[in-house]
Amino acid sequence: MKQLHILTSPAEVHAAFAHARASGQTIGFVPTMGALHAGHIALVARARDENDVCIASIFVNPKQFAPTEDLATYPRTEDVDCAMLAAAGCDYVFMPTPEMLYPAGFATLVHVGGPSAGLESDFRPHFFDGVATVVAKLLCTVLPTRAYFGEKDYQQLCVIQHLVRDLALPIEVIGCPTVREADGLAMSSRNRYLSPNERKTATQIYAHMRHVAEKLRSGEMPQTVLPHATTTLENHGFTVDYFALRATDTLAEISTDIPITTPARLLVAARLGTTRLIDNIAI
Ligand code: AMP
User: What is the DSSP string of the chain?
Assistant: First the structure.
């Protein structure tokens, strides 16, 4: 097993990569909030395979949680995470404290427009500014050749692609497919909040997305299919924040009164008890 080096400050990251950068080695980077699962490890495996050096970060970013959200209780499993990263062949993990990443006087907030509008922002208005701020800081600290993000958080992936393009950061953003449990539930650190009954019900999200996707692909009208899908999930006990259809790249709204003619994405956010689940699928 490779040795995993733990870095805790931006200065340590710079020092660790000075040699790799000077000698033209490629650096693959996977930012995470920890509580790692096979979805995260798939990103790490790809970063490891496609680059000379691989680094992950673990940072539960206070800026992307509202006061009412689960910052205090977000699962923290750093010892297990580090063992998983080492087993996956990751070279470095960057684990800063909030004070290290946001020292006293930190006064920058990064706002990305475009794909951040609607969907998650309608329910978590603070969220993407927090994500864009921390990802910008992490990318500028690590300066990787390639950064890997999951399609599981599809709107977030679009926002980060936009951020990197707008700021002309010399980094390739790579979107990776969603890793699912055997029954289809998208893996998520928050799945561990689900009770056994909720865990069974949670599979309905992917089942219904696939069902709706097939109907849309076969030419059914979004405006008839989507409200029905929402009602079906609600009948299973979900509170549905959105069950929406958007253009694949821009996440712009698309006509729902004609069959789909352009690449589209179906995106869902639904709550089961106190757990909020999100998922999406290509049409
Ligand atoms: P998180 O720790 O939840 O902030 O996620 C860190 C990264 O892992 C993000 O780019 C996520 O999109 C990605 N990710 C989380 N869950 C999955 C999954 N089931 N499949 C693929 N990528 C994932």
Answer: -PPPEEE-SHHHHHHHHHHHHHTT--EEEEEE-SS--HHHHHHHHHHHHHSSEEEEEE---GGGS-TTSSTTTS---HHHHHHHHHHTT--EEE---HHHHS-TT--------GGGSSTHHHH-TTHHHHHHHHHHHHHHHH--SEEEEEGGGHHHHHHHHHHHHHTT-S-EEEEEPPPB-TTSPBP-GGGGGS-HHHHHHHHHHHHHHHHHHHHHHTT--HHHHHHHHHHHHHHTTPEEEEEEEEETTT--B--SSS---S-EEEEEEEEETTEEEEEEEE-
